[in-house]
Amino acid sequence: MNNNDNASQPFISPIRARRRYWLHILLAFIILVCGVIIGSGATIYFFSTRIIAGLQNIDEFPMRASEQMRYRLGLDKEQTSKIRAILEERKERYAEFITNMQSYFAEELQSLEKEITPLLTPEQLKIWKNRMIIRKILPPPPKSTEE
Fold first, then answer.
1. pTM value surpassing 0.70
2. Can you tell me the distance from the alpha carbon of 83 to that of 81, in angstroms, rounded to the nearest whole number?
3. pLDDT tens digits for 78-87?
């Protein structure tokens, strides 16, 4: 009985088994890295196309939001038009809020820069200034056709 069991299963040397073990770990790591890259890319794409574009085009907000609600909630035309009217009324308040938020953020970055700058060496200051320039790039304030 032992002879038949051993004959049906091929012998794998311990060295070859270790190679396969590392190969599995390497493949798992490659799959993990690819997943992180794809997920990050999808997140950046979604953020840049949906969120920032929505903040920059405040005039399109009521139409886009009401159409999304119509699709997801199954609203009829009357409900959709009433919701769109409500969102149109609030559009300017949203634009004002976004503008205030951007100016507040810019003020915070300036105060942070004033506090940290004296503590840095000239080389560190150069790197810091470059990083602060990147952080100061904000989406422009919302566009409004009513102005």
1. no
2. 5
3. 999 999 999 8
